Amino acid sequence: MSLPFSNNINSLNTAINVWNNCTIADDRSQILTWLSPLEPRLQHQDIQNRRVENVGEWLLQTEEFKRWYAGNQGVEHDNAVLFCYGNPGVGKTYIR
Amino acid sequence: MQSCFAMEIQGSERPILGNKDEPRGIQGKGQALTSCDVSSLVVDSLCDQARGQNAAVACFYFDFAAQKEQSLTSMLGSLLKQVVSGQREMPEEISKAYEDQKKVIGGRGPQLPDIVKMLQTSSSEKPTFICIDALDECAAEYQVKLLDSLHQILQKSPNVRIFVTGRPHIQAEIVKRLSGRATAITITPRRGDVIRYLRARLIEDTTPDAMDGSLEAAILKKIPQDISEMYVAATTLRKLPQAIH
Q1: Distance CA B198, CA B161 (A)
Q2: What angle separates helix A40-50 from helix B72-85, to the nearest 10 degrees?
Q3: Which of residues 24-63 of B touch A (CB under 8 A)?
Q4: Are A81 and B184 in contact (CB under 8 A)?
Q5: Residue B87 and residue B98: Cα distance in Å, rounded?
């Protein structure tokens, strides 16, 4: 008699766990959508697919980029922002 | 400069070279190097490196054509969404804000000061990289507010690093709003970029019969050369006044 009963309890517990996980996952996705309806991830994928491989790779090798990436290990630093700009004219630092 | 380059490679999307008044296409094949190419390359490289380091990467691509949807709260909200979506548990601060806002006017959206505060908290726990493409395409009324919000985030979380692309005219505003914490770097397609780009486009040629080895070789030689010459001309022009003095 006790065996089927405990089996029932077990399956009930499993069902409750599944239910709880579902509600948590549901809440989570609701909260994420609430934070913003925008999906830059999709935009990123689209651009990534059209990008020609290795074009612009040199940027990752520049001292400016490396310094920015390395940061200052948790201490406030002057290179927290890296601004990359296209320059159509003359008068500013141009090609090296 | 821009027009010469665009003439060779037409139908460009968001060229990083060019002045602010120039119209930009929304869809189409790109130039050898556009700002979103650079941004997405950086994002991918950061994502690859973040894997082993428990770092967060968030990106945002501004677009003139989508200014209406890209409000300041939805933009910053999407950065926050990306930062927390990698975490196993939703930070309580965010769940609580959500529950609180759900109770009023049938569900109010997140409020700007709250988003900034939540971004400060979430980004101070781990290295966080924020990449923003084409900041100059952000609606003018939000630009200053966005930079101020980013400044507030930087002040609270030393773990945050921000990568921004845009046209040169916004540099002054960036420097001013972020209290000189920005390094600037010029992006121009290098010779290798142009060759790689041309090769990729030649492979996609829809009339391959019109192409032969010598024409292909001539294209790969002539266009990168012309572009290099334009740079040399620009550099020389820039140096001229110094030479005269």
Answers
A1: 33
A2: 80
A3: 29-30, 32-33, 35-46, 49, 58-61
A4: no
A5: 17
Cβ partners under 8 Å of residue B156, min gap 6 = B120, B124
Query: For the segment B176-214, what is each residue's pLDDT rounded down to a tens digit?
Result: 898 778 888 887 766 777 777 777 777 777 777 777 777
Q: Per mean pLDDT, which range of A54-58, A85-89, A91-95, B44-48 is the poorest? A: A91-95
Alpha-carbon distance of B81 to A30, in angstroms, equals 11
8 A C-beta contact, residue B76 and residue B149: yes
Contacts of B106 (CB under 8 A, 6+ apart): none
Q: Which residues pair with B24 in a beta bridge?
A: none
* Distance from the B27 Cα atom to the nearest Cα atom in chain A, whole angstroms: 11
Residue numbers in A near B183 (CB within 8 A): 64, 67-68, 78-79, 81-83
* Phi, then psi, of B177 in degrees rounded to 5: -75, -25
- In what side-by-side order are the strands of the sheet with B182-186? B56-61, B128-133, B160-166, A81-85, B182-186
User: HEC string of B187-230?
Assistant: CCCCHHHHHHHHHHHHHCCCCHHHCCHHHHHHHHHHHHHHHHHH
What gap in Å lies between CA B187 and CA A96, rounded to an integer? 11
Question: B223 pLDDT exceeds 80?
Answer: no
Q: Mean pLDDT, to the nearest integer, of B83-101?
A: 91
| Predicted complex ipTM | 0.72
DSSP letter for B17, please. S
Residue B84 sits at the vertex; the CA angle it makes with A45 and A56, to the nearest 5 degrees, is 35
pLDDT digits (tens, 9 = 90+) for A26-83: 788 899 999 999 998 888 988 888 777 777 788 899 898 999 998 865 555 678 999 9
| Cα dist from B6 to B22, B31, B63, B190, whole Å | 12, 7, 20, 15
Determine, for residues B200 and A52 on separate chains, whether the beta-carbon distance falls below 8 Å: yes
